[in-house]
Amino acid sequence: MPKVKIISLLIATLVATPAQAIDVAKVREIISDPKGLAAPGCAAGAFRGGKTLFVTAAGSGDIEKGKPLDGDTLFYAASVSKQFTALAAAKLIEQKKLSLDDDVRKYLPELPEYEVPVTVRMLMLHTAGIRDSLELIRLAGIDSVADTDKATALKLLFAQKSTNFTPGTAYTYSNGGYLLLAEIVERVSGMPFADYAKKAILRPLGMKRSFFMNDAKPSGTNIAHGYVPVGDGFEIRDTYPTFSGSGGLMVTINDLASLDRDIEVGHKVWTPAVAKIMTTPGTFTNGQPALEERTGLVYGGGLMIGSRNGQYFVQHGGGAEAFKNMYARLPERKLSVAVLCNRGDWVSQDKADAIVEAIEGDILTADDASSAAKPALDGRYVSDELQATWDVRIAGDVLTAGVASRFARAPGEPLELKRSADGTFTALGTRLIFDEDGQGFTIRTARVHALRFRRAG
């Protein structure tokens, strides 16, 4: 038997106890491509009560070299990084070197004075109204976020004369807010953010291989390339930014097991004081929950919190062009699932949910009417504000919209948007978010918020 196959089989059988009867072969099916090592894939792990149930992987981290993924492969974590940025801030808050209610201009005087002061808490909860740094980079004419650095991203943020809304009054997911949060951690700690995160979080947790990037591409061995499907094969797309805060973490499944162990039983980094900061659902200044309308979850410290599909989750996903990740905890079941994928056409939350059900049974559909009868989304939608109709069709992860408007002499070229890790559809800075009942959707761009379409007829 080939050596690679033997290694894969050994990884696949790392189950905590036979009594749990977890079908790891089924888990591998969830994260496998029929092309085997000729395709990218995922590494996945499940943990209960601080113990590892299994770690398994399928697919290649480097297709050209035939290098299989495993539990020690480093993946670009994308926005899974945000909980670590919030954790870094929480450790400083625990030490009383920083406060959630501090005006951020105390540490970032380069920011303009906005109509209402922005606080550290608002950055953490995405309620500050800070514009998204990755969108600003693209709008500034930089084709790829991989071709810039932290200094440029900060200059763009510091140049913004206003916020998306009055700080504290609404929720808009912002990579810019988390870049500013990391910069505050850097200035308060007196060391580069990547170094502080290593000293205060990663090494105490026993996350031996993981690290934050600091304006340099990752180097070393067993690092996954990201891939997107092109024709009958795949092309490398390592097109992620190399600065940290909103993203920037390189992480392995085995290292996420170390984090999960500390959350459940260790409490060396995840102390009760830190846990309160991280897992308290956020609110707006009027006391209403900081709700992410599409999911119905509330943002906490780099985590989305609440019930979905009949279960209580504490989770965060992460997506780049060619990486799709999810780390989800079900606290009431003391179960956690982590999925790191190096291919851009898979939806990580779907993979994680399928693994949860492979372990626990059909718990995500029981007594959940919204899951039992998901609305069909194809159809015609109308915007009164644009006086336009969109004929929407969805095939796999691609949404195509034929657009007709009274202001256009002839129908334009169809729009094409791709499904993101969070279930929305995006293209060129435009995000389309369907209503839960399928009766409409909202369009958001960097400069146009909450443009509504309703289903026709």
UniProtKB/TrEMBL annotation:
Is NAD a UniProt keyword of this protein? no
Q: State the superkingdom.
A: Bacteria
Signal sequence segment: 1-21
Beta-lactamase-related domain: residues covered: 37-356
Pfam families of this UniProt entry? Beta-lactamase (PF00144)
- Database matches in InterPro entries: AmpC-like, Beta-lactam-related, Beta-lactam/transpept-like
Keyword annotations for this protein, in alphabetical order, are: Signal
Gene3D superfamilies associated with the record: DD-peptidase/beta-lactamase superfamily
Protein name in the entry: Beta-lactamase-related domain-containing protein
